[in-house]
Amino acid sequence: MKKNHNIIEMRNIIKRYPLTVANDNVNFYLRKNTIHCLVGENGAGKSTLMKILVGAVGADAGEIILNGEKCFFHSPLDSLTAGIGMVWQHFMLVDDFRVWENVVLGAEPGNSVFIDHSEATEKIAEISKRYSLAIDIDKKISDLSVGEAQRVEIIKLLYRNVDILILDEPTAVLTPQEVSRLYEMIFRLKKEGKSVIFITHKLREITEVADEVTVMRQGRLAGFLKKEDVTADKIAALMVGREVRQIKNTEKAATRETILETRGICFEEKGVKKLNEISFKISRGEIVGIAGVEGNGQKELVDVLMGIEKNHSGKILFEGEDITSLETSARIRMGISHIPQDRQKQGLIEEFSMADNSILGRLRHFGGRFSIDFGKRDRISDELISRFDIRPPKKELLAGNFSGGNQQKIVVGREIYFDPKFLIAAHPTRGVDIGAIEKIHSEILKIRKRGVGVLLISSELSEIFALSDYFFVIFEGSLSGPFYPSRISAEEVGLVMAGKRVNGEK
Ligand SMILES: Nc1ncnc2c1ncn2[C@@H]1O[C@H](COP(=O)(O)OP(=O)(O)OP(=O)(O)O)[C@@H](O)[C@H]1O
Ligand SMILES: [Mg+2]
């Protein structure tokens, strides 16, 4: 008999939640020495399947076979001991600790009470060199960029010698440069005979890294492909079950009437210049993009525009009125809407139902401060559910129990729903599947047509090119541009994003 080369087999996995069947008789296997992409629409059950594999969530039925033996993990720590490590879609690092402390936490060398600092740092240095995971080990977690934090999560697992690394949408938060480094790391792992499970929504990434692909749809297995059979079209068809259109902004902006203007905004934090003389004007019915590698001031700019950060110089004008000193709530009341870059921290209250989240920050639409028109709230949430295809279609489900992409749809839906005059959209399609990208892009174009001004902040160049009337590139807090999608190539923009000066600039 042929030897079985699967290191992991998950057989007939079933996981039911009160309102959904997250995994409905799913079979999944992973072979040694492969990069296996796990793909599928938002809410398809990918994260759940992996949580079951590592023992974070218990299955209702099914079995897991590891190296030919039936096994059952009670917790992620349990599976880690068996060599399986997972980097979660939303990380779990201890903010106040330093990088190296986070890495060794729970796996201290030497005596477990006293951490041997030099031994630990040596080992971390070796790992970060071998796997191209550069990191400053003395930095505090709270001072890291998301990409760096992810590197720490990965180092933490490699420090424990995992053979199987599970990455749940790792690239959703990475810059293009970081993505290629991540690739280097996983290819290196493969060379060493290890295996990687890679969850992603990006078709290009699947074709770039996958040896094998498992596609899920609505809790079930939708298909399995080997490298030689993988094409972007095939995967898209398996994932969504229909053809996906690429949305494009082809119409000219309707007016030249300025709605939002910034004048010379400067912002400094801890002695570092985060925003440098930011001035732009956005008209009604116009989409202005801000492209850039994350961490170059985008977050600070949004915080300043929304009044979350007030410690800056320069002015913000909205419909000609100076709003520089207004509170966030006042700005929202004036019609400025905001899709935050971090849906978990700023966009949602996970312990509230989807229905309550669909009116978050919009109480003025609901009579008084203390009385909520529940009927109206429910109508709005039902409408958001159908308009944005939020799954499961259950408004009573807690926001935290929706899948990552569906949480994003709730936030986007709400921010578009209440007839804003101006929308600040920071990474509006982060973590959503290709079908939902189409939906969100067409909704953004729809409100633009109605005369809403849009500031689109994105690190996805394809998104900037598809939607913007024109765009700027932000680098180390300064803007270059404007650039027009039809007059510049993605490659050229990539160089500007990496700090290259364009013609005419010094
Ligand atoms: N704790 C929970 N309680 C109730 N339902 C849950 C819970 N966790 C997950 N679900 C549901 O299970 C289904 C599968 O979710 P899962 O997070 O596995 O999807 P996913 O494929 O990872 O999606 P995404 O691409 O959006 O991250 C979803 O409908 C989700 O709402
Ligand atoms: Mg997920």
Q: Structural class of the helices, strands and pairings? A: alpha/beta
Helix % is 25-40%
CATH class of the largest domain: Alpha Beta
Question: Any idea how many domains?
Answer: 2
**Fraction of residues in β-strands:** 25-35%
* CATH structural architecture of the largest domain: 3-Layer(aba) Sandwich
Strand element count: 20
Please summarize the sheet with the most strands: 6 strands, mixed
CATH homology-level superfamily of the largest domain:
P-loop containing nucleotide triphosphate hydrolases
Bound molecules: adenosine-5'-triphosphate, magnesium ion
User: Termini, distance in Å?
Assistant: 69 Å
Low-confidence stretches: none
Rg from C-alpha positions? 24 Å
The whole-number mean of residue pLDDT values reads 88
Shape: globular
Strand order of the largest sheet: 6-7-8-3-9-10
Count of DSSP helices?
A: 17
> What name does CATH use for the topology of the largest domain?
Rossmann fold
What labels describe this entry?
506 residues; alpha/beta; Rossmann fold; six-stranded mixed sheet; 26% strand; binds adenosine-5'-triphosphate; binds magnesium ion
In words, what does this structure look like?
The protein has about 500 residues and is of the alpha/beta class. It has two domains: about 240 residues, Rossmann fold; about 240 residues, P-loop containing nucleotide triphosphate hydrolases (Rossmann fold, 3-Layer(aba) Sandwich), CATH 3.40.50. About 35% of the residues lie in helices and about 25% in strands. The strands form four sheets. It has a six-stranded mixed sheet, with helices on both faces. Helix 13 packs across helix 14 and helix 14 runs parallel beside helix 15. The longest helix has 16 residues. The mean pLDDT is about 90. The site of adenosine-5'-triphosphate has 20 residues, from strand 2, helix 1 and helix 14.
